[in-house]
Design goal:
alpha/beta; Catalase HpII,  Chain A, domain 1; Hemocyanin, N-terminal domain; 10-stranded antiparallel beta sheet; 18 helices
Length: 690
């Protein structure tokens, strides 16, 4: 028998490469130049024809190769997630900026010199796996930290609040927002009767709906959206002192969105728009970076605010509880196999480490049960933690055995605790030795199905959100209500929504009520005057980094101007892309050459963030064959446009010159830098349409 000291000494040390090494051990070697074998290693001489009784005879039962190949194919899928079915993921690392020891004993938040491997899955919520990326929807932002103390899962969304306060309502929400059960229509949208009926009967969802109707619901990129832990957690330090905490992911590139019409076009032209953006940028070396921020409240201040800090339909305004930036996550590597990694990764909010604990947030309490239950059904086994992408980097020992998908081969005849046959191994360890111990919160109360009165204000923060929006953002919210509620067939439901949101803002509600056949409110509205600048995307970081810029040229283009533009865009971190009437090399007037990898038939302007048009000697011949529509569509989606040479004539033909965000190269003035500045601004919402 081994004593405790010897067992501990045999445990491998944690290091930043351990997860990559572990995954490498499970990867199959490259198939190139290898003989084909069965899964048992038997080399095969034929893989095109089944074994038959004669050339035109029936396939016979002893064709074991056909049976293995077909059986594996028939079982290659697992049930998709009920929500968050459509996702995309990447590998990376996290490093803390400074020790958080005063607040938490979590080791991965202590040493700035330690890089913790992470795996992040972004997702839409409502749509099936085959739906589009650009639907108006909440986005999942789930991060798995492979720490030396075990896996920690921060299962977040791109909104800081949720639809409900108590998890018991979650099945009703999903049943209501999913396609209606009689015809399974519509897909990946909330614009139908059952969802808005549920909203009208559950007014606690008002704040969340304001976020859902906003630009936040149609992110430009996974790399350009915030992530929020939503629920209230606890930090616990070595002395046992606790603080309430909320988690934030802040994208280094800022928070940016698609225009609504643009999102609809993109969803048809490229349903994989957001996942392709992440995949392509990581392959180009454009790492996706997010800073981790925390909001911390002392336990003595739990009841200090005009909202309940355990209410998941409420945020903690950053002006009242500042976000402290404590570290950065860098996503730097795409997955090698979508199914093995992205589809099989399993997240669970109860996967925590010492130093992080739960609050009594009733939504969180329900999540602690639901996630594990869901993953077991999806995998058909409690052993999904042994799948390589889910496997901790630290060793794990317990008396759990057997079950479908079991990979660990446990030796010995002992699988019970406590025991004398194996010296009580595996044994528990004290909190001082790293053992997890729940925070000792005193709880005293009657068993009751009820909710605290402090949860009853459903409209103040919805009005706070409205107050915080810029004028264009407010108009987009009104337009979203017009579309979403306008799709509802029931007049009664539409009117109930109008009546409900009149408690937020009368002018806002009257603006969409007029277009959906409902009676506008004449009074009501919240009297909240407060606003939070942090909630508006108008105040976000703005940069030209990684923006895709379409450069339209034809034979004989101005080589000097185009080369200068390409060099400047590349220096600013933007991604210039040549587009023309045909694919292939195009020669400029100075014998320079560029290659068009995009045409007006293969790519619409919605795939780009900005447009520069120089033209060329042959450009006018195909202006009406796609270029005019390309430019006009970019203009209508408020994007920056630059023009030189023939491009200037095209601006005049389309009545686009002298418009906000349109940069013209006149009299050889510098137009490159103003265009780059315009790209950084992202959109020109105040632009007047022609």
């Amino acid at each position: 028998m081994k004593d405790k000291k010897n067992i501990n000494e045999e445990e491998p040390n944690f290091n930043e490469n351990s997860k990559n090494e572990q995954l490498e051990a499970f990867r199959s070697s490259d198939n190139e130049d290898k003989p084909m074998t069965t899964n048992q290693g038997l080399k095969m001489s034929e893989d095109e024809f089944s074994l038959k009784a004669g050339e035109r005879g029936p396939t016979i039962m002893d064709d074991f190769h056909f049976r293995e190949k077909m059986t594996h194919f028939d079982n290659e899928r697992i049930p998709e997630r009920v929500v968050h079915a459509r996702g995309f993921a990447a590998h990376g690392e996290f490093e803390v900026y400074e020790s958080m020891k005063p607040y938490t004993k979590a080791k991965f938040l202590q040493d700035p010199n330690v890089k913790t491997p992470v795996f992040v899955r972004f997702s839409t919520v409502v749509g099936f796996r085959g739906s589009k990326d650009t639907a108006r929807d909440v986005r999942g932002f789930a991060t798995k930290f492979y720490t030396e103390e075990g896996n920690y899962d921060l299962v977040a969304n791109n909104f800081p609040v949720f639809f409900m306060q108590d998890a018991i309502k979650f099945p009703d929400l999903v049943h209501a927002i999913k396609p209606e059960p009689d015809n399974e229509i519509p897909q990946a949208t909330a614009a139908h009767d059952t969802f808005w009926d549920w909203v009208s009967q559950n007014q606690e969802t008002a704040h969340m709906i304001m976020w859902l109707m906003s630009d936040r619901a149609i992110p430009r990129s996974f790399r350009m959206m915030e992530g929020f832990g939503v629920n209230t957690f606890r930090f616990v330090n070595e002395e046992g002192k606790a603080h309430f905490v909320k988690f934030h992911w802040k994208p280094v590139l800022g928070v940016h969105s698609l225009a609504w019409e643009e999102a609809e076009i993109v969803g048809g032209a490229d349903p994989d728009f957001n996942r392709r953006d992440l995949w392509d940028n990581l392959n180009l070396g454009n790492n996706a970076e997010f800073e981790l921020g925390v909001q911390i409240i002392e336990e003595k201040d739990e009841f200090k605010f005009d909202f309940d800090i355990l209410d998941a339909t409420k945020l903690w305004p950053e002006e009242d509880v500042p976000v402290r930036i404590i570290g950065k996550m860098t996503l730097n590597r795409n997955v090698d196999n979508f199914f093995a990694e992205t589809e099989q990764v399993a997240f669970h909010p109860a996967n925590i480490v010492p130093g992080i604990d739960f609050s009594n947030d009733p939504l969180l309490q329900g999540r602690l049960f639901s996630y594990l239950d869901t993953q077991i059904l999806r995998f058909g086994s409690p052993n999904h933690h042994e799948v390589p992408i889910n496997r901790p980097v630290c060793p794990f020992f317990n008396n759990q055995r057997d079950g479908f998908m079991r990979q660990t081969v446990n030796k010995g005849n002992v699988a019970h605790h406590r025991n004398a046959l194996a010296n009580s191994s595996p044994y528990t360890v004290s909190e001082e030795e790293g053992g997890f111990a729940h925070y000792q919160e005193k709880v005293d109360g009657h068993k009751i199905r009820a909710r605290s009165d402090s949860f009853k204000d459903h409209f103040s923060q919805a009005k706070l959100f409205w107050n915080s929006m810029s004028a264009p953002e407010k108009q987009h919210i009104i337009d979203a209500f017009r579309f979403e509620v306008g799709k509802v067939k029931s007049k009664d439901v539409r009117q109930r929504i109008v009546d409900m949101f009149s408690n937020v803002d009368v002018d806002m509600t009257a603006a969409f009520a007029k277009t959906i056949g409902s009676t506008p409110p004449s009074s009501g509205g919240s009297n909240v005057k407060k606003h939070s600048p942090a909630l508006s995307q108008a105040n976000t970081t703005k940069s030209a980094m990684t923006r895709k810029v379409a450069i339209i040229v034809a034979e004989g283009y101005d080589g000097q101007k185009v080369e200068a533009m390409i060099d400047a865009l590349s220096a600013a971190g933007a991604e210039p892309r040549i587009i023309s009437d045909v694919l292939g090399p195009i020669t400029g007037n100075n014998d320079s050459q560029v290659e068009a990898k995009h045409t007006f038939q293969t790519d619409a302007s919605v795939a780009f963030d900005a447009v520069y048009v120089d033209g060329g000697q042959t450009a006018d011949a195909w202006f009406d064959r796609g270029a005019s529509k390309f430019m006009k569509q970019a203009f209508e989606h408020f994007k920056p446009i630059a023009a030189s040479n023939e491009g200037l004539n095209w601006l005049k033909n389309l009545n686009l010159p002298d418009s906000l965000g349109v940069v013209e190269a006149n009299n050889d003035t510098d137009f490159v830098q103003p265009f780059i500045d315009a790209i950084a601004a992202h959109r020109f919402w105040e632009r007047k349409m022609v």
